[in-house]
User: Which sequence fits this backbone?
């Protein structure tokens, strides 16, 4: 089929230039995931007929790690000789857009390679501080051909995304050798909540002009401890498969000043009560965070506090869903008074 032919040509193109790409197409990975055991165990692929790359779709999506290739002119010349038309989408590099810099340097975020009635969407991933992979949004500049491909049908690019670095596996599917995430189902799950929100650096700068940042040793020390506690909490909850979010003062700090509020003295997380698991307490204790308080009960106003290093504690608030609102309960440690937010 045209689709398989275009994918074959594209894989030939990138291997001739030693560019390591991996498949992130959700439609194909969804099909591959159903047969993953069979695909892993048979080096030549499961069956001779075209089952995966012939599935109906307008695009096939691949990922490329920016640091693994040089932007060679020769690569695009070869693509043109092979009959591909291509489009490069650039945008601002957010890694420079920190608190001190708004240089607006642009980097390549997406490439589209079109041949006949099929197109390859190549998403460029960048490593960001914190050891995760980031891809940018796909925004067309004014002079670009909006009919080049049906852009609305793309699976990536509606907004920026962040992902763990995947372990890759070389497999043979439909007689084509291709790298895929070793665990396609967890990649697909990650995709559903991968939307990335950039910090509001400009607003944070304005905030600090009004209220200069606390740069005392105590503040620096607390922020360091709070961030390492947050890191440990994220690892622990992710291992359990419990979804969580930044809550209360921790969320406010990120939103208002792109940092931890130095006088807050704790780290706040929110979790829906439907995601509560009995293993949460033992998992945190095993991670070296003993339980300090437990308020409320699972059916009403549950709140857990764990003791981090020194005086920094981790508070996990559980949220309850009603028909038209969400609430969480709080208990004042000294008086035992209960509050509902």
Assistant:
């Amino acid at each position: 089929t045209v689709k398989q032919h275009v994918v074959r040509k594209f894989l030939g193109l990138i291997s001739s230039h030693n560019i390591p790409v991996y498949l992130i197409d959700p439609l194909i990975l969804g099909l591959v995931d159903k047969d993953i055991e069979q695909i892993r165990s048979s080096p030549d692929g499961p069956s001779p007929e075209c089952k995966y790359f012939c599935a109906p779709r307008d695009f096939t999506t691949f990922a490329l790690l920016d640091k693994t290739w040089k932007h060679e002119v020769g690569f695009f010349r070869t693509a043109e000789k092979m009959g591909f038309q291509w489009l490069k989408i650039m945008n601002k590099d957010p890694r420079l857009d920190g608190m001190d810099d708004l240089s607006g340097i642009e980097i390549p975020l997406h490439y589209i390679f079109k041949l006949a009635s099929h197109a390859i969407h190549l998403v460029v991933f960048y490593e960001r501080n914190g050891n995760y992979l980031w891809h940018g949004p796909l925004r067309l500049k004014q002079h670009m051909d909006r009919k080049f491909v049906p852009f609305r049908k793309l699976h990536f690019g509606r907004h920026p995304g962040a992902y763990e670095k995947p372990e890759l596996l070389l497999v043979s599917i439909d007689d084509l050798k291709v790298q895929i995430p070793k665990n396609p189902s967890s990649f697909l799950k990650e995709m559903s909540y991968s939307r990335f929100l950039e910090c509001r650096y400009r607003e944070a700068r304005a905030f600090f002009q009004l209220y200069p940042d606390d740069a005392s040793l105590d503040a620096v020390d607390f922020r360091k401890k709070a961030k390492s506690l947050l890191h440990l909490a994220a690892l622990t909850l992710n291992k359990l498969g419990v979804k969580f979010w930044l809550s209360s003062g921790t969320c406010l700090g990120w939103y208002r000043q792109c940092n931890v509020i130095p006088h807050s003295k704790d780290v706040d997380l929110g979790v829906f009560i439907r995601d509560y698991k009995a293993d949460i307490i033992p998992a945190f204790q095993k991670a070296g965070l003993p339980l300090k308080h437990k308020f409320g009960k699972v059916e009403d106003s549950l709140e857990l506090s764990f003791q981090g290093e020194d005086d920094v504690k981790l508070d996990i608030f559980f949220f309850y869903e009603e028909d038209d609102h969400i609430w969480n309960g709080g208990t004042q440690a000294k008086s035992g008074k209960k509050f509902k937010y």
Summary: The CA atoms of residues 85 and 110 lie 14 Å apart.
